[in-house]
Amino acid sequence: MKKILCYSLLLGALGTYQVSKAQDFNNPKVISKVEQVIKKAKVGNLVILDEFLTTAYPTVNYTKEVLPSPQFLISDDPEYIRVPEAIAMQENVAPGAVRLYVYNVNGVKEPQQIKTKITAVIKNTGKEKMTLRMLKYSSQKPSTNYFEIGKKGLEDYFKSDVQNDVRFIQPGEVVSIDQQLEKNIVSYDELVHGFYEFVVDQPAQISVLQTSPEKSGPQAYAQIKTVIPHSHANAGRGIFGVSNYKITATDTISTASGVTQLVIADGKTDPWITGTIGEKKEFAKNAGNYGVMYHTKIKWKSTEGKGLALVTWNSRSADNQWCGGMGLTMSLTNPDGSSTVRQLPNNALITKAAPEAILVEIYKPDPTKEIQEIDFIYSPPGASCLPTPLVLIPVNL
Asked: Under a CB-based contact definition with an 8 Å cutoff, are residues 204 and 125 in contact?
């Protein structure tokens, strides 16, 4: 896959959200063709929706509530670590829950390209023995296929339910957070992607660093004295107090009302989260809300036995050369309350541009219920331009 399609995690903040040259999406003939395509398609697959996709659909109004959130750390500034041995992110956390998102690339090319190790370590800065309990774990093999890593990383995170992974760290001791990162050898231009959630009961310092493959993360930490200056580039880096939202549609959607879209993580109506960087507590912004979880609920009712198809598409493909593809992963709640985690698309790596779209799910009407509910968790997809509109299409099933 060409790296030109997937160079940066930040892409949601670059460019504009433009209305496409789409046709009249309410045209009965167009809607009829869309219905036929959707009815023949497999959920999760790419579909071709000719003369239909546009950013001009009516938007779903919603409320956004902050849910209890772990201390959220993201490491993506610099995204490309150009120094053979350096700390790319370093933050202090209080006792409690922590979410850590590592998104860094071996960018060393001067005087020559070399192999490195990119890893994350934690130091017990408290006075008592620390207990570290891992809750969610997602760690991918380094690769230049950033879309694949982003999709798989989120799938593993959603599915993860770590049990009995408890470590004890003495005061002043430094240990690796993820032993797999210690084993990986990272070639030039390869992305290291780790997504973790854990609990500590002592104050701690967390660092993401690059070193030689022969040296352990704790050894490198003891020797490296400086942190790479931040540049407010890419998604950014720092520590954030908000990382979980509850999104609730304010009105019940009726299939009689036609096509609608839910637009979140656009940086405008839904601003990027803010926090601080380092000991000086400098301003930080997560440009893209990457790693943020949107717990979403939409009430809907069926008219004339119609169902709702949920699709998404790459609405930013025309913006610039970096927006040529989009892939994501979502956790969808089934009627019985169980969850399905789905890479999207699941029959290709990415969707490129209109008329391509991804059929996320089809919601069938339940004749025993007047009002039904759509429930899913969305997280902005890494390596993709934002927003990724979630379009609801009434369909005859």
From this structure: yes
Buried b (16+ CB within 10 A) or exposed e, 126-149: beeebebebbbbbbbebbbbbbbb
Is the pLDDT confidence value at 383 over 90? no
Quote the pLDDT of residue 346. 96
Closest CA to 341 of 355, 351, 328, 322: 328
With beta carbons less than 8 A apart as the criterion, state whether 325 and 351 touch.
yes
Q: How far is CA 1 from CA 324, 326, 348, 349, in A?
A: 12, 13, 12, 9
Q: Report whether pLDDT(56) > 80.
A: yes
Domain ranges for the chain, please list them: 3-7+16-67+242-279+289-395, 71-234
Closest by CA to 298, choosing from 55, 65, 43, 62, is 62
The DSSP letter of residue 336 is T
Put simply, whether the predicted model's pTM sits higher than 0.85 gets the answer yes
How many angstroms from the chain centroid is the CA of residue 280?
27
262-301 pLDDT, tens digit each: 999 999 999 999 999 999 999 999 999 999 999 999 999 9
Q: Would strands 166-169 and 46-48 be described as parallel, antiparallel, or unpaired?
A: unpaired
